[in-house]
Amino acid sequence: MKENAKNFSVGKMASVLQVSRGAYYKFLGRNPSKRSLENKRLTELIKEVHEESLETYGSPRIHAELKAKGEVCSRKRVSTLMKREGIKAKMIKRRKRTTIVSKKKKGVFPNLLDQNFEVEKPNTVYASDITYIPTEEGWLYLSVTLDLFSRKVIGMTMENRLETSLSIKALEQALKHRKIPSKEEVLHHSDRGVQYTSEKFQRLAEENKIKLSMSGKGHCYDNAVVESFFHTLKTEHVFFERYRTREEAMVSLFEYIETFYNRKRRHSTLGYLSPEEFEQKNEKENKRVLSV
């Protein structure tokens, strides 16, 4: 009745709904309930978290973020309040093939990873791939290297052309950031793209005692973690942007990946922690075990 008071008379609505006008006016004089006030407060917090997530979080991740902030509420309640306010995770579904598969047999390695994406410690298995980012100047090519333990992007490079240097620079950056102990051996997984079967890339891997693994021909699920990352990057960020220049795209991608994805974005596979938080938690647990 209150919502339609501008369109219909109170008397007519009271007659149709079979309630008295006195009861309606009595209702208007009531103070908001404690539950109503709490829902209003919680809704404002939900809006803040949604905005901080670049509008990419649905109810599970928003609930996890509220829980981390010390809020006590159920996921169902968060979902209900979001539906009431029309708050949704933005996402556009598109897919595009990326790297060009090498036709030569030389330089192709067997699939040693074999879709075993659950890794027990960092610097054990890396995974890489390349994707295309549209700009008004033409394509921008993005190459990333992820540590499968935490799904963290540890190597990233962007160039105007689809060259071998993309994969090389991404791996070099990963090695620089991680500083792998000489006794450790890392497995590096990729598709059979020409950037990964090149002599220069494989020489870099050999020099750093990195064992290579490659997806089967046409088997995109063999590198599902990186495929999932690119899907997230594009459906949550890239497809909502319009890049005039490649430089503009580079800045935008770096900010999303390094500032949001690595440090803030909560992953369901990591117990709703960000890659950075997951690694820090693992490091603290290891130190605690060693000190016992």
Q: Which structural class do the helices and strands define?
A: alpha/beta
The number of helical runs is 11
Mean pLDDT: 87
What is the approximate shape?
elongated
- Rg from C-alpha positions? 26 Å
- DSSP strand tally: 5
Describe the 3D structure.
The protein is of the alpha/beta class. It is 45% helix and 13% strand. It has helices spanning 10-17, 21-28, 34-52, 59-68, 75-85, 164-178, 194-197, 199-207, 224-236, 246-261, 275-291; strands spanning 125-135, 138-147, 152-159, 186-190, 210-214. Strands 3-2-1-4-5 form a five-stranded mixed beta sheet, sandwiched between helices. The protein starts with 9 loop residues before the first helix and ends with a helix.
List keywords for this structure.
five-stranded mixed β-sheet; elongated; 292 residues; 5 strands; alpha/beta
Task: Itemize the secondary structure elements and their pairings.
Elements: H1 10-17, H2 21-28, H3 34-52, H4 59-68, H5 75-85, E1 125-135, E2 138-147, E3 152-159, H6 164-178, E4 186-190, H7 194-197, H8 199-207, E5 210-214, H9 224-236, H10 246-261, H11 275-291
Q: Brief overview, please?
A:
This protein is an alpha/beta fold and 292 residues long.
